[in-house]
Amino acid sequence: MPPALASVGVERGIQWERSIVVELGIDFPGMPSIFGRLVTQDQRFIAFEIDTTDEIRVEQWEDITSAQNFNEHNRGTGVGRGALALRVLRELSA
């Protein structure tokens, strides 16, 4: 995990041993230095963008829980990404 993400998360109450990063991009052209999504210890989905070019600057830290697909049975696609991420979080926390 990038140190900048680890420290920003801790500052915002993330308990990394009980949370998971479900998407992570690093140094992708045209994007902030670090970006992605995580699921917190209290099952909240967070979209983040952190620029580390000169100093650590959080460009986005947004709760996107309400936009997740928590359906277990989606026609044609199966389980939703939100439901799958929560299932993984529960299994890793057990």
What tags apply to this protein structure?
single chain; 94 residues; globular; 4 strands; 4-stranded antiparallel sheet; alpha+beta
Shape: globular
Largest sheet: 4 strands, antiparallel
Helical segment count: 2
Strand content: 25-35%
Radius of gyration in whole Å, from Cα?
Answer: 14 Å
Classify the secondary structure makeup into a structural class: alpha+beta
Percentage of residues in helical conformation: 10-25%
Mean pLDDT: 95
Output the helix-strand order.
Answer: HEEEEH
In what order do the strands lie side by side in the largest sheet?
1-2-3-4
What would you note in describing this structure?
- The protein is an alpha+beta fold and 94 residues long.
- It has a domain at 3-67.
- The protein has helices at residues 3-11, 81-93, and strands spanning 20-26, 34-39, 45-51, 57-63.
- It has a four-stranded antiparallel beta sheet.
- β3 (45-51) and β4 (57-63) form a beta hairpin.
- The longest helix has 13 residues, at 81-93.
- The chain is globular and about 45 Å long.
- The two termini are 22 Å apart.
- The model has no long low-confidence stretch (mean pLDDT 95).
In short:
23% of the residues lie in helices and 29% in strands.
Strand and helix map with partners:
Blueprint: H1 3-11, E1 20-26, E2 34-39, E3 45-51, E4 57-63, H2 81-93
Antiparallel strand pairs: 1-2, 2-3, 3-4
